[in-house]
Each structure stands twice: as structure tokens, then as C-alpha cells.
Amino acid sequence: MSENIPKKRMMRKLIFESLFQLSIKDVKLDNILFTFEKLNEKVHLEESYYLEAKQYIEDIYKNKNEYDALINKYSEGWRVERIGNIEKTVMRIFIYELINKKDIPVKVILNESTELTKTYATQKAAAFVNGIMDKIARSQASIM
């Protein structure tokens, strides 16, 4: 694994690259996990990160519609179908983290979503994602 990329960030990149196909077409979980396995052959995540990444993928796949409903609710005028595939994929990952990873500070989740979006899209897309993620984070904080 590249030593200049923190392990958790590398894990998120593999999750993103594996789940991206979910935004393009109807794809089975087995196909996404196969993609993840192939990507991991190049970077060799440590076992704990590998297992955690698989859990992310399985849960995001299972809860995609719920996450998309949150995106729809807080994207104000942008139906999820109109949002770019990169942005949708990033938001699904970080909604998962907001809901399931209470050990990760919300500020870190927001920062990582911005950085991941900038890696695959533009600064403008990152600002768009950050704005929606901030609204979702605030709504989740008021529920919990």
C-alpha cells in the first residue's frame, strides 16, 4: 500500500471505486465485491481495513435507497437522479459513516468526503457534496 496515503483514506478510495458502478447500472453485490477484491490485490489493505471495507460495501448496497432518500431530502432542487455519479457515490459512503461510525468525528467525515470528491471530481463538486453532507449531518445530530 502506498505509505503516503493514510490507511483509512485508502480504504475509502477502494470502497468508492467498488461502489461507483452502482450509480451507473443495476449491479449485484457479488460484482461489487469482486471489483473490491481485484482493487485490493493492488494495495493489500490490512485485514482489519479489508473487513471493514467489505462491511461498508455490503451495508451501503443494502441501504442505497434509504441513503438516496436522504440525499433527495437535503439536496434542495437536485433530485438524486440528476446528481453526478461521483457525488452520489461519495455521499452514500459518508451517510453510512454518519449513521454507523460514531467513533469518527463528523468534522472528519465532512473533510474526507470533500477530499474524496476532489480526488475524482472538481472543487465545485466537492463544495456541492460538502453542503449536502453538512445538512445531513446536522439533521442526524438533531435526531440522535
The secondary structure category is mainly alpha
> Strand content of the residues, in percent?
under 5%
Number of strands: 0
Number of helices in the DSSP assignment: 6
Principal-axis shape equals globular
Mean pLDDT reading:
91
Approximate helicity band: over 70%
Q: What Rg do the Cα atoms give?
A: 14 Å
The run of helices and strands is HHHHHH
Uncertain runs with pLDDT below 50, 5 residues or more?
none
Distance between the termini: 36 Å
The largest sheet is: none
Keywords:
144 residues, mainly alpha, 6 helices, 78% helix, globular
Structure explained in plain terms:
With 144 residues, the protein is mainly α. Helices cover 78% and strands 0% of the residues. It is built from 6 helices and no strands. Helix 1 packs across helix 3, helix 4 runs antiparallel to helix 5 and helix 5 packs antiparallel against helix 6. The longest helix is centred in the middle third of the chain and has 28 residues. The chain is globular. The model has no long low-confidence stretch (mean pLDDT 91).
What layout of secondary structure does this protein have?
Blueprint: H1 7-24, H2 29-43, H3 47-74, H4 85-100, H5 106-120, H6 123-143
Helix pairs in contact: 1-2, 1-3, 1-4, 2-3, 3-4, 4-5, 4-6, 5-6
Task: Explain briefly what this protein structure is.
The chain is mostly helical and 144 residues long.
